[in-house]
Amino acid sequence: MELKPTNLRTEILAGTSTFLAAFYIIIVNPAILAEAGMPFSGALTATVLVSAFGSLMMGLYARNPIVVAPGMGINAFFTYTAVKGYGLTYEEALGAVFWSGVIFLLLSVFKTREKIIASIPVALRHAVSAGIGLFICFIGFQNAHFIIDNTSTLVGMAAFKDPISLTFMTGLLVTGALISRKVSGAIIYGIIFTTLLAWPIGRWWGDASAVNFGVATMVNYTGLFALPDFSLVGKADILGSLRYAYVPVIFVFTFTILFDGISTFVGLAEASGLKDPDGSPRNMRKSLLTDSMATLFAGLVGSSSGTAYIESAVGIEEGGRTGATAVTAGLLFLPFMFFSPLLSIIPSIASSIALVLVGSFMVMPLTKINWRKPDEAIPSFLTITLIPFTYSLSVGISFGFISWTVLKLLTGKKSEINPILLITTLLSIFFLWL
After folding, report:
1. What is the pLDDT of residues 217-264, one digit of tens each?
2. Which of 107, 110, 207, 270 is the most buried (most CB within 10 A)?
3. Rounded to an integer, what distance in angstroms lies between the CA atom of residue 293 and that of residue 226?
4. For residue 3, is pLDDT > 70?
5. Are 140 and 24 in contact, with CB atoms under 8 Å apart?
6. Residue 325's pLDDT is what?
7. What percent of the chain has pLDDT over 90?
8. Nearest Cα to 257, choosing from 189, 208, 308, 223?
């Protein structure tokens, strides 16, 4: 792909477009982290700090037009697996995020990542992405109270005629239409639209008490401006997170940010032509170092891991070619530290739209898996399905490694199993045994 010439105006417009495409994380990430017992306003401040720091570093140091912010999927693992599943306090989970950033930083500095990347089957990388997408989607439907408990079938759908379900589905479809029409910032516009649509619930029709902590109204305005809440800064329990039982959590954090970053950089480079002379993504090493620093920083200020955002493709499509695009987006995040009361007006049925739709974006790698080759299709399928079905990224990933290695051995293809993959498989068995 031939790169088009750029200028500062184009870079600023591109950065603004990328910001609008990734803006939803300011709302969604605190909402997910709040489920782990963290204060919403504190998580919002941390989200903004990570997004600004990571994006500015990416622009100024790595000189790439790529936004960095707390990653979707890994924030769900933080809340629903690390805290609610393994029983970590959120302070310990933040410590695990910090250590995963340290490990990723060391892997990047000493170039160990190339060996690790080469050892992981490509099909499993695609499967993990798709599995996380389904997991995010499932959580979104649950948070919107569209998918509910069912004693006979475990899960079921809420009454479709219910005002909450109707509002959620209307917002979802309208947002989907905006995305289909390639409207910049479609997700945030969809969230705003759904919030306005939800305003009458509890006022003119319906009652949100059952799903909104006893409050009848779905949308509640509490103010416009507030000073940033830095209560989560420095809360990471760095030493407490080093317990033997928490090693799987640190492993999954590290694995996920490593391959999220790799796949994003590779995908954007292939789509945009932003490559070094040897054909690798432009400034790959510096970009990975930025990713690792964003994760380390996230643990210290009170957020789940930072990672490169695939939504950066929006700004690149708009002509962004230099670090000025990422710098612009990073600066646009900062003012929203002061408007947390305004953002908290967003109800769960509105922010959940982003979860469902982002989930749909994340399953795109499914098309890259060779489904006609059983010894690759079966491990990929197990990975994809077990992540949402077990409500655990670590379980899905572990079964992916184990099934891949076992099937290759039983089909006489042990030459496709390298030593590092074998070690990873043994570690996966060990983690599941815990």
Report:
1. 999 887 888 889 999 999 999 999 998 888 888 988 887 777 777 778
2. 107
3. 28
4. no
5. no
6. 95
7. 45
8. 308
- Give which of 104, 134, 18, 14 is closest to 69, Cα–Cα: 18
**In what helix (H) or strand (E) does residue 78 lie, and over which residues does it extend?**
none
Distance in angstroms (rounded) separating the CA atoms of residues 423 and 354? 37
Token pair 């479709």 in the structure block, residue = 160
CB 21 within 8 A of CB 293: no
Q: 201 forms bridges with which residues in the sheet?
A: 205
How far apart CA 53 and CA 68 sit, in angstroms, is 8
Least confident of 24-38, 140-154, 342-356, 365-379: 342-356
Which residue is associated with the tokens 């949308």? 219
Measuring CA to CA, how many Å separate 73 from each of 2, 28, 137, 233, 259?
33, 11, 10, 22, 12
Continuous segment of H or E residues that includes residue 306? strand 306-308
CA nearest neighbour of 85 among 395, 406, 398, 397: 395
The structure tokens listed for 170 are 């209307």
What DSSP state is assigned to residue 181? T
Residue 152 Cα distances to 144, 156, 160, angstroms: 21, 9, 19
Measuring CA to CA, which residue among 322, 262, 261 is closest to residue 294? 261
Q: Which residues contact 406 (CB under 8 A, 6 or more apart)?
A: none
pLDDT at residue number 81: 86
Q: In the 8-state DSSP scheme, what is residue 68? A: E
How far is the C-alpha of 353 from the C-alpha of 177, rounded, in Å?
Answer: 13
The answer to whether 353 touches 140, Cβ cutoff 8 Å, is yes
Distance between CA 244 and CA 146 in Å, rounded? 38
| Structure-token pair, residue 10 | 């184009």
- Phi, psi torsion values for 370, nearest 5 degrees: -80, 95
Range with the poorest average pLDDT among 71-85, 195-209, 349-363: 349-363
